[in-house]
Specification:
heterodimer; A: about 425 residues; mainly beta; three-stranded parallel β-sheet; globular; B: mainly beta; Porin; 14-stranded antiparallel beta barrel; elongated
């Protein structure tokens, strides 16, 4: 085994040791939920989501969606996280603000019931759900292991979501769904050399390659008031893999393999139950996330370089509980929502050789929804959410501590046509 | 070991930008079998998922939800002086939705169009300008097309539609730290850090359709331009060792700076304006004509511009570094605008109550935007003819599950590039004179249902 190179203190200072968003980069929907209803319910919805958001939460729920509807909205997430002291280029402390960029993006959702006739009538619905960050499709920050970084937050929110699914009603009680989530990863190479005239030129060959993760779901109505939802989401991984080759330059350089995981959502299995008590819907369940399959954020750059340290990461189970109260009036319904979840950190404490930090998170969601169903208007729906996640204080093995807050705010409007 | 003796190599690729390839595969091969069979003369004709590309206003012309999915394959037989240039085939999925409805009493429609190559979302190649390449077919068609549109019919007969097409580029910064060993570079120990973004690129498209009479429809569509830069800045700072470990005798450079910078343009898509007319002289005949202006004069050479600099504080007298070579000079592409005429026709033949078949023909002439390649550049291209043919079958009432007909369409498409000679003005040109010719053939099928 090749030992890790010693840490250069000057490098640590000059590299602006901020507590930075870092390499795992999972998705916004994995962190706060998808849409506006689910974040208001702390990520719950596998048993109750019946609109475009079911493409992520449980495609089986699409069977109860509006036959033809479009949703558009906006979601923003802000961070207030404190961690290890950040140094300037002369090694002077400049504060503990981690400068994790806010994540902002648009939500687009579509549901289309396929108007089959006869025995297939009202049984199949197509759903599409997109989340497009304001500027990026995927962000990948791959830092040196000794640089302090919030491995599971920050940049992981900066990722597009492309989700398409079909829901089908099998019986009056059972519905199933299947779909996929898609992402792009980058594979390429740059060659720099000199031509026959002795002049420098470069040539590149880069490919964006689509990666897919399957989504499956099932819903079962135990009785008129109780629903069970089971959803499976496969691992969604996007890599950044770029090779650099130089030839005939005054200073020869080795081939460099610049590779890392730009985006990673773990395989997830969700089991939730929902029960209605008159106007009140109560939902709760567990989500298992297979973080132990995570291969680590980066690899060795050259053949003679040491391998980066392995990530100390393990599976987790996330409990969730949520409620939705419906207040009906002629022509409109108002929904009041709330939820609570506790997501333990899958990551071990930060170490000197791998300053990868993460915290247990307590998620508190709240939100409102307004559904207008007047005869002179097409069905219209407005939803807003506010979710706060408390990053519980944590001490790490390198004598550092991290804590903070995350706020997510969103609004969507839907119209049926 | 002193800190200064540890090589600190920092390579910054900023912004590293790669992108989908240089233009639009739908321009070259069509979108969907019905449209391709009519040589893409669809500005005033398309009402199915293909309207997402040809004219989004057409989405609101239909009455039913229409879902289509298909596959196509395009292969090139392009040669230079008789040698096959091995241009990669293009093949992949086409799919789309046209979902009309009503909101607030007005007809509206939503559409989604997708062309997804089987092998990749996109590919970018930046090669030397001297290297001959089929500029329009070598790589430009290896890319995704994804667009979402809305359409509205505010007045009877008048439809307006528009939307966005989505692409992605990459920008990033790369830092590499470690130890470079000179001249045994393979013994170097380097580590990297990356800050890379796949950034969203959106470009607009909008169109209008007007049907003044039942037998005639007019259309105009605009498709926006986009281009993506490939800018690479590499800077290395630190020391260089003549042996691994950089001890007192082996550390040749204590502090050095190497800068490597390249700039190139990829994925250039010229803006276009297409006007079209669709005629229905009788219930079974459809004739469509298009004329498209393509702003190729805005085209920029895809060749990378390179800058390289090296500053070394040499400690070891025996350590010598060769002089820095000059960068290559990029010659402008000097493309010019083109007008592309297209004509397509469709004739349907009812066979009983439940089956209707259709035959289609099309022709287009695409002038080359590239000037004669008499200098050092070799953007090989030529005027070309497109000849297309297609057939379709419409099956009604085949199953009680489907409320509307099932459509099955197929097409074949031939692009013929007559032989041309490329004669260099400089007898000492490193490439020399050569001949270019070839054909591109494509075929595909689409299955769709109306609900």
């Amino acid at each position: 085994m090749i030992p890790s190179p010693p840490v250069d203190r000057r490098w640590l200072a000059t590299a602006a040791l901020s507590l930075a968003p870092a390499a795992v980069h999972a998705s916004a929907e994995d962190v706060v939920g998808y849409g506006t209803r689910s974040p208001a319910m702390a990520g719950a919805g596998a048993a109750s989501a019946t609109e475009y958001d079911a493409v992520y939460l449980n495609p089986a729920g699409l069977v109860d969606a509006e036959p033809r509807a479009m949703t558009y909205g906006f979601v923003a997430t802000h961070f207030d996280v404190s961690g290890p002291e950040r140094l300037d280029t002369l090694g002077r402390p400049v504060g503990t603000d981690p400068r994790i960029e806010p994540a902002r993006g648009a939500i687009i959702g579509v549901t289309l019931r396929i108007p089959f006739e006869a025995s297939w009538k009202d049984r199949v619905t197509l759903g599409m759900g997109f989340y497009t960050p304001t500027n990026v499709v995927v962000r990948g920050d791959i830092l040196l292991p000794e640089e302090p970084q919030m491995l599971l937050l920050g940049s992981r929110m900066q990722s597009v979501a492309i989700q398409i699914a079909l829901g089908a009603r099998v019986t009056d009680r059972l519905s199933v769904g299947a779909g996929f989530r898609a992402l792009a990863e980058l594979v390429g190479a740059i060659h720099v050399s000199t031509d026959a005239a002795g002049r420098i030129y470069s040539r590149s060959d880069s490919e964006l390659v689509a990666t897919y993760a399957p989504t499956f779901g099932a819903r079962y109505l135990l009785d008129d008031r109780t629903t069970l939802g089971l959803a499976f989401r496969g691992t969604l991984e996007g890599t950044f893999d770029y090779d650099i080759y130089t030839e005939n330059l005054p200073l020869p350089l080795p081939p460099m393999n610049v590779e890392g995981i730009a985006q990673y959502d773990p395989m997830t299995l969700v089991l939730e139950g929902a029960r209605r008590f008159g106007p009140l819907l109560v939902e709760g369940g567990l989500a298992w996330k297979s973080w132990s399959d995570y291969p680590g954020p980066t690899v060795a750059t050259t053949t003679s370089a040491a391998q980066p340290p392995a990530a100390d990461i393990s599976d987790i189970v996330v409990p969730r509980a949520a409620a939705e109260w419906e207040i009906r009036s002629p022509g409109a319904s108002l929904f009041v929502r709330g939820g609570l979840a506790y997501e333990a950190s899958p990551l071990g404490p930060g170490r000197e050789i791998a300053r990868w930090y993460d915290n247990d998170r307590l998620q508190i969601g709240s939100g409102l929804g307004l559904a207008i169903h007047r005869a002179d208007l097409p069905p219209i729906r407005l939803d807003v959410h506010e979710q706060v996640q408390w990053l519980l204080p944590r001490d790490h093995a390198d004598a550092q501590s991290t804590s903070g807050l995350l706020w997510s705010t969103g609004v969507t409007a839907a119209v049926s046509f | 070991m002193r800190p200064g003796r540890t090589l600190l190599a920092v390579v910054a690729l900023a912004p590293l930008s790669t992108s989908p390839a240089a233009a639009n595969p739908l321009d070259a091969f069509g979108f969907g079998s019905r449209a391709a069979g009519m040589a893409s003369a669809q500005t005033a004709d398309a009402t199915d998922f293909s309207a997402n590309y040809y004219n989004p206003a057409g989405l609101v012309r239909g009455d039913e939800l229409r879902i289509d999915v298909g596959w196509f394959y395009a292969d090139s037989d392009l040669s230079l002086s008789g040698e096959d240039t091995n241009v990669d085939p293009v093949h992949g999925l086409v799919a789309g939705i046209a979902a009309p409805g009503r909101a607030f009493g007005v007809p509206i429609a939503f559409g989604l169009g997708l062309h997804l190559p089987d092998d990749r979302v996109s590919r970018v190649r930046s090669i030397r300008q001297q290297q001959p390449r089929w500029e329009m077919y070598d790589n430009r068609n290896q890319r995704l097309y994804l667009a979402a549109n809305l359409a509205i019919e505010p007045l009877p007969g008048l439809a307006i539609g528009g939307g966005l097409a989505f692409m992605s580029s990459t920008k990033g910064t790369l830092d590499v730290s470690g130890e470079v060993v000179f001249p045994a570079a393979d013994e170097s120990e380097l580590r990297h850090r990356v800050d890379a973004d796949l950034t969203a690129v959106r470009y607009p498209q909008a169109g209008v359709r007007w049907a003044p009479r039942d037998w005639i429809e007019l259309g105009v569509v605009y498709r926006g331009e986009f281009q993506l830069d490939l800018d690479i800045l590499a800077s290395l700072e630190g020391s260089v060792a003549t042996e691994r470990g950089c001890d007192e005798s082996a550390c040749a450079v204590a502090d050095g700076v190497l800068i490597l910078e390249t700039h190139s343009v990829n994925a250039f898509l010229p803006q276009q304006v297409a006007g079209g007319v669709a005629l229905s002289p009788d219930d079974r005949t459809r004739i469509a004509l298009d004329l498209t202006w393509v702003d190729w004069s805005a085209y920029r050479s895809p060749t990378a511009k390179v800058f390289y600099d090296l500053e070394l504080d040499i400690h070891l007298e025996s350590f010598e570094v060769p002089p820095i070579p000059p960068p290559s000079l990029v010659v402008p592409a000097n493309f010019h605008d083109t007008f592309v005429p297209r004509i397509g026709a469709e004739r349907t033949f009812p066979l009983g109550r439940t089956v209707t078949i259709a035959g289609r023909l099309g022709w287009a002439y695409e002038p080359s935007p590239a000037p004669p390649q008499t200098g050092i550049t070799n953007f090989v291209d030529a005027d070309r003819h497109h000849v297309t043919a297609g057939a379709g079958v419409l099956l009604s009432g085949i199953t009680p599950v489907l409320p509307g007909p099932l459509r099955i369409d197929a097409h074949a498409h031939l692009i013929a590039i007559p032989e041309q000679s490329i004669d260099k003005t400089d007898p000492a040109d490193t490439v020399g004179d050569y001949r270019a010719s070839g054909t591109v053939t494509s075929f595909g099928a689409t299955v769709g249902a109306d609900f």
